[in-house]
Known about the structure:
The structure holds two protein chains of two kinds.
Chain A: E1 18-24, E2 32-38, E3 41-48, E4 53-58, E5 60-61, E6 66-67, E7 73-77, E8 80-84, E9 91-93, E10 109-110, E11 112-115, E12 118-123
Chain B: H1 2-16, E1 20-25, H2 29-39, E2 47-52, H3 67-71, H4 74-77, H5 82-87, E3 90-93, E4 98-102, E5 107-110, E6 115-117, E7 120-123, E8 127-129, E9 142-144, H6 148-164, E10 169-173, H7 177-188, E11 192-196, H8 209-222, E12 225-227, E13 234-236, E14 243-245, E15 251-253, E16 256-259, E17 263-265, H9 268-272, E18 283-284, E19 296-298, E20 303-304, H10 313-327, E21 343-345, E22 352-356, E23 366-372, E24 377-383, E25 390-396, H11 402-410, E26 445-447, E27 452-453, H12 454-462, H13 469-476, H14 486-499, H15 516-526, H16 531-538, H17 547-559, H18 572-575, E28 579-580, E29 586-588, H19 599-611, E30 615-618, E31 624-629, H20 634-643, E32 656-661, H21 675-686, E33 695-700, E34 714-719, E35 722-727, E36 739-745, H22 747-764, H23 771-777, H24 781-789, H25 797-809, H26 814-820, H27 822-825, E37 843-846, E38 849-852
Parallel strand pairs in B: 1-2, 1-7, 2-3, 7-19, 9-16, 10-11, 10-16, 11-12, 18-20, 32-33, 33-34
Antiparallel strand pairs in B: 4-5, 5-6, 8-17, 13-14, 14-15, 21-22, 22-25, 23-24, 24-25, 26-27, 28-29, 29-31, 30-31, 34-35, 35-36, 37-38
The structure holds siroheme, flavin-adenine dinucleotide, iron/sulfur cluster and FE2/S2 (inorganic) cluster (FES).
Protein name (chain A): Nitrite reductase (NADH) small subunit
Keywords (chain A): 2Fe-2S, Heme, Iron, Iron-sulfur, Metal-binding, Nitrate assimilation, Oxidoreductase
Organism (chain A): Zobellia uliginosa
Amino acid sequence: MIANLSTYESVTTEEVKVWFKAGPVHKFPKNGGACIKYKDKQIAVFNFTRQGQWYACQNLCPHKMEMVLSRGMIGEEDRQPKIACPLHKSTFSLKTGENLNGSLDAIATYPVKVEGETVYVGFME
Amino acid sequence: MLYTYLYVILLSSLKSKPMKTIIVVGNGMVGYKFCEKLAARKESENFKVIVFGEEPRAAYDRVHLSEFFGNRDAKALELAPMDWYAENKIELIVNERITDIHRKTKTVTTGSDKTYTYDYLVLATGSSPFVPPINGVEKEGVFVYRTIEDLEAMLDYAEKIKSKKTKGRAAILGGGLLGLEAGKAVMDMGLEPHVVEYAPKLMPRQLDSRSSNVLQLTLENMGINVHSGKATNRILGNGAITGMDFGEDDTLEVDMLVISAGIRPRDELGRTCNLEMGVRGGIVVNDRMQTSDPSIFAIGEVALYNQMIYGLVAPGYEMAEVAVNQIVESYEVIMRAEIDMSTKLKLIGVDVASFGIPYMPADKGLSIIYENKTKGLYKRINVSHDGKTLLGGIMVGDAADYSILHQMYLNNIPLPDNAEELIVGARGEGGSAFGSAMDLPDTAVICSCEAVTKGAVCCSVIDDGNETVKAVAKATKATTGCGGCKPMVADLVKESLKTLGKTVKENICEHFDYSRQELFDIVKLRGIEDYDQLLDEVGKGHGCEVCKPLAASIFASIYNETANRQETIQDSNDRYLANIQRNGTYSVVPRVAGGEISPKQLMAMGRIAKKYDLYTKITGGQRIDMFGAKLHELPLIWEELIAEGFETGQAYGKSLRTVKSCVGSTWCRYGMDESVSFAIEIENRYKGIRSPHKFKGGVSGCIRECAEARGKDFGFIAVEGGWNVYVGGNGGANPRHAELLAEKVDKKTAITYVDRFMMFYIKTAPPLTRTAAWLEKLEGGITYLKNVVINDSLGIAKELDADMQKFVDTYKCEWKEAVETPEIRERYTHFINSDETDDNIEFVSLREQKMPKEWA
Lengths: 125, 856
Ligand code: SRM
Ligand SMILES: Cc1cc2nc3c(=O)[nH]c(=O)nc-3n(C[C@H](O)[C@H](O)[C@H](O)COP(=O)(O)OP(=O)(O)OC[C@H]3O[C@@H](n4cnc5c(N)ncnc54)[C@H](O)[C@@H]3O)c2cc1C
Ligand code: SF4
Ligand code: FES
């Protein structure tokens, strides 16, 4: 199946209808990301240990439509958490999804919560 | 008594001096500049100024007109708001054309038939686009490109086209500066651009044919189609344009046409009142900007000065300055005899600039030309026969040095001995050998639009405390015109800050205020163990994709740790120990030291590649690459390869790639020594070492050099009596031959020298700098390096030897480590919550193998 950008739409915490159990904390590398599957979606989940924060976004890079963002490097720019695509280093804000070093479409972001040892990602359906 | 008396007389004479009226015809860029400059003078109190503008709005920035396509924001282009004119007691009447001048009565008549009297008349009526008399130019869909109204009409028409068809086409008639700008503009409007030029090349006035070719290639890559050497006979279409006819069945279908074929001065007023005119138009002026009638001035694109019309703002602004001075009786300010016509294209995406005499026959001077077609680069400078003065030049693809070269030309600065370094540069491609903007004289005009000198910029920083380019721009107006001088102003600000002791450091990124070499020393001296500790102790914030891999490289160089330990600070390729490919799959490259591979190994590789359905290819580095492995397959493939005796080839790392060999004396009839054995030995010695950039070696059995050892970071060539050792070579984008470090030495000595060279490089090079670029920048170059490596001039040879030996002794195959460690193996799954694989990956077949499906 070839990925479609319209599959991904940002969700805010207030909008969450389903908290999907993504996996145990230890499966997500410290200061790095991993990919989960939810229905027909691929979601990149980041464990930003240094900030004590978790972030989630679509795994699909809007530049060349490849499912790779979870394998990118996270970091921050002007206090904004971001993800750099491993293919051509497009960077996106993990908060707003906005493309920070170009004019690509913003990526969709999703809320994450951690309860005990379990990581949950929030979806609307 | 007497004094008071005189004083009274003087005062009364001043008072009685009547207010004089200046009428300015035309409120364009130059007309406005005249008002601005006059308003800044205290003498302006003595004048009443009335300005007539035919356009419906106050003067705007025509130079940046194309920005209107992006935002349709006419306000943003405004040079000054309407209030400004009122505040400065200038009466601006827009939407009103002057139709007649009556020199006898010193009056003008307006379109609405009103009459005004002047003492001084300033004609700043500019020019209009030249529309060639081609059959059909009156058709709907044919536009010119000069005013905001022109652009609005174009935008509306483009919308109409787009509502009718998906892929509309627009042609631009004229491949000059403006035409190319228009080409980009119609492309941004969503139309397919076609630039049609009558001359055989683009920008015929500014470029020679070679640079024009390079430009054409770059434009075509951007999606701008170029048709040069085409004369348009007819515009086709019934009512509205549908195409262009070039004769002999040669036509181009288009939905819209923008004419950009040059300008014609709007000199009609001068003609009707019998001022002296140029043969081909333009109102003749002297160096005071006076026309043949001394109370009438002409400035800007309508003025014919030195028998030329200057279609640029900078000369226009200078004319405005001169006219103001003449009117306020500062008679000494006159126009320069030579007008600089240098230009820089402000097209987004391509750098194009030319200055002075861009090209000329050989008897006038000598040319130095640098061309790199793959990168779309062309640079040319023309130098006087004695090699001392710069006469002009061209740059396409990279005009970073335009400002400095342009200044050298304008200020007649003597050239350095190696003039070629001005364009090929000691700093590598795109750099230049010319020290810094600070070497220019204080009088050098840096911003020609606003005539700001270097002295003024530096003063603004040093004396007035403006410490950023923004602040300096605000204070001096430099960079606010065409913006071409921005890089140079930035340099001057930086250098001026330095003289104040405020260094602007070249830091790695916002998280570390250090250079790579400083950070290297910090990690080593403080024994810092990981990235988090490094950030906590000497950095700030939480890191980014620039400092993380850099720190990873430093940790690897100091502790020889593999990429597996701190995997999330590695570049993605290092993190997964494989090179990511265009569809998110990976390549697998086992080490084949020296390129020597046995039939058994070949068969093993063939079997594994077949099993996992991998595309295979011989690489340029004498080994075999297997492509198309999915993330989860990597440990499985490597497990099998390791079982067959292979180890990682580190094709993904900033580390040793390959040591290329020729077959050497073992088989070759000319071989002087065993090059394969040496290559294998040295490849195994350096394998796994992480460095600022990748590095490669080569060993040739004789000077025929079949292994291309001199194209590598280090190379050995067997000669009568030993080995010649070369360092600092490079293929790639900017090829450079390695330099001779030592001659006819034995193998052991050769290895020691290269050990030290490599270690010295690893410790001191900036990030992502190959040995070639590093050596080029190393002060003292190869001579200095020889001293360090051979004569131990820094007294560090022992340390370098020991550090290298430690690397050699602690080598581990990181793929072996990965497949044997369950926690590391776990990293190789596409989903952590499902065993499914990525269904977004698609392959298509290719010559009995496969390849990724093309990107849309
Ligand atoms: C596979 C190979 C092409 C091939 O099919 O032959 C190749 C492939 C890549 N080269 Fe290369 N280069 C390959 C031989 C070369 C050579 C030839 C050689 O080594 O003799 C050169 C010129 C020699 C040199 O480096 O001086 C070469 C000069 C480059 C450069 C330019 C380096 C430079 O300093 O200018 C890059 C870009 C870079 O490293 O920044 C590059 C980068 C790359 C990358 C890593 C680009 C990327 O980031 O994806 C390619 C991916 C490798 C992979 O496995 O996925 N490759 N590349 C060759 C692998 C050799 C090997 O066995 O490891
Ligand atoms: C798209 C574009 C890009 C450009 N890019 C550059 C660049 O990068 N660098 C550069 O140096 N130059 C550039 N130029 C050229 C630059 O804009 C002109 O050199 C400059 O505008 C000339 O100023 P001017 O005042 O002489 O003429 P104009 O700006 O044309 O002003 C003349 C004004 O007089 C008015 N007028 C004419 N006749 C009458 C009359 N009888 N009564 C009343 N009003 C009258 C006109 O309507 C007009 O408003 C560019 C031009 C265009 C169109
Ligand atoms: S370099 Fe010399 S030894 Fe090597 S193949 Fe060529 S001729 Fe033979
Ligand atoms: S695919 Fe992500 S930056 Fe190119």
